[in-house]
Model the fold of this input.
Amino acid sequence: GFTPSTAEYTTTVIITLYKEDNTTVLQQHTVSDVPIQRNYKTTIHGALFAKEPQLSISVSSDFAGEKEVAL
Done:
């Protein structure tokens, strides 16, 4: 697996917003110390691309499998 079977640990997540051509980067935001744990859902939400980002991170056990979302 990608994560240890029981322990929670942290990683860095880079969120990139691209122009419609999918090659030009409009904005990029790095979120450090994001907690992740196997079979748990980690959610990053808030004003990610605001001038002064206000983020909230939550980890919950209501993970129900994988779901692919096209943006």
Q: What stands out?
A: DSSP finds no helices and four strands in the chain.
